[in-house]
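Model it.
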Amino acid sequence: MSNPDDSTFYLQTQKGRITIAKSNSEEVNPPEFESLRLDDEVSPRAPSSRPFSVLGVDMRKVENKKAHNTGRYKNSCLIVRRNKEFIIDIRFDRPFNIMEDTVEVEFLIGSSPDVNRGTHIIVSIGKDKNEMIWRCRVLNTKGNQVTVGITPDTDCIVGRFRTFVCIVRGKAKQRTPKNPDTDVYVLFNPWDSADEVYMSKQSDRQEYVLNDVGVIFNGEFTDMSSRPWNYGQFEKGVLDACLMVLDAGKVPLVYRGNANEVVRQASALINSQDDDGVLVGNWSGDYDIGTSPTAWNGSPEILLKYAREDGVPVCFAQCWVYAGVLNTFLRCLGLPARVITNYNSAHDNNGNLKIDIMLDEDGTVNRSRTRDSVWNYHCWNEVYMKRPDLPQKFSGWQVVDSTPQETSDGLYRCGPTSVSALKDGELSYPFDGKFVYAEFNSDVIYHEIDKYGKTKILHVDTTYVGKRIVTKLINSNKYEDITSTYKYPEGSKSDKAALQLAERSGVTLRDYDYDEPAEAGVDIQLQANTIKLGEDFKLTMNIKNQSSKRCTINATITGSVVFYTGVTTTTVMRETIQATVEAWKTETLLMEVRAKEYIPHLVDQSNLLFVMNGRIQETGVTLTTMRVVTLRPPELTIRVSGSPRVDQAFTVIVEFLNVLNFALEDVQCRLESPGLIQTKFKSYEQILPGGIMQYTESITPLEPGQRVLIAGLDCTQLRQVTNQLEINILAV
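Modeled.
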């Protein structure tokens, strides 16, 4: 095996050492003139009666791109899809004689073209027709021009091929010189039933392959919010950047025709944890040496920066950034993909499908002993494809996650794993089913630590994790609830059957060494309305006595600043309460949470975690619950001045009013729109309380159609401020 830094590696076989290319960008071009050895010839060939040469090749890019649904790629080369014919014209210096002349069209990829490995494709037109992997037919001959239809193989490598036309005369080949204008990009084909990524519905293909903008859901499951995201898979340079990601990861070209392999490799390569992939993760709150994860509005800026800087990882990312960039990568190569948000997503560090929350005797979360966490939300991706390595029923949507949480086969990656298999508890199939299953189906176990360090289980919540799993609804910015595709209703027969299958996969579920407490007969809920950042607010505690006897509740409510990953920082509130509730009655208590107490300690996405730990005085039964409150940031507005028309400038105005009682420092503002403008960036040293930021940009559209403007504002004191505006560009 060669040095892993090389662009090729070697495979030892009985016939010797075979070079296997690992880079699409590395190339060795064949000579323009080649003399064939005798053993290369299948049968003797006589030269044509009249020698001739190639004057030009027309790739018919506009026509072919339209037929292959690739016309939106801002790339000057031809882009086609597997198993669909594309048409080229070859012009000679004399009429082509199909009975006498032999012409070959060659497609080469990588630095070690090999006919047997699919990296050197030869299609023949004329009198000598050899067996071909790619199909070819002569469609028309007119004068000195021949029109040829060529169909890439269903399983062919996805990437950029160089094109040569060869005239074969006797024992010699005369090739056209290398011409970048005749390069052909071949992509996966979700329009073709023979392709492993086929989708039958046009509406699905429009959303999951062709849509270059979307929304990614965040917030908290009782107070969901979202942010726009520019996938931008058709933007200039993005396709080459995606291929460079595979090159930087040294993915062998021979693997790049296999969707399963491409997806699994991409899961590792979008993060930089092992292999200098695209994005560096950072959940510390300190982003001074890079860009805050909340500042990005889309993928093109990130991918183009990675390509421009020759594979230096881009700083920084968190889960939705990883998911957004992976979604771009997959859609760009033709793989149907979507971003998923799992609310109350468990990160199970020890693989036991249990989330252990450790509480001190006063009800405070013990941060040093609480190693598991429940994220307010976690974003991953689903990709739609066949799984020939699994039973047929497990094809379809597959989970793939590029956020580096745990290793899989030695690398930080996750998936693809079948959503259908997860729902049925079939966790032994590749890849990473147990880890993904834990994210949406773990139990939360509350432990109490006494003064001697001993612990006991207070309460087990089997429904807190995976409260809601959503994705963008087709043709809408609203969410589609897809929880039912991941799990059956809690406690149903199907749910119990799936749990039993999961246990057969080596997972121990709901086997706790403690005495199940008597039925409490009391239900306690913590509630808060939608809260704007910087406001005082009321936390509501509803105590519902569902028994026939009066009860007295003694409880402690602790409020802490928390990252969206569930990691707590500063405690900002602790209140002890006692309430007596009559039989069959509900008592409501209000607790004041003051902005001056939480504002100085907020991190990233302005979340507060409230944990209630209580006891029923009459029975000794413990009660535990928790609630995350997401504080909504001030609004950012986008408007346009003038009527957007092709070749006519119009103005975009992005405005922000600082309604907070403190100044914002080192503010960044981004504006972008796929198909209209690349990312524009502006910095402001300070926005004072009551101050207005107004950022204007003049734009001259080149094409008509619907576009989406996406803007974002970001600084250390204020994150996750975004908005979008849909506009219609009119023709002249």
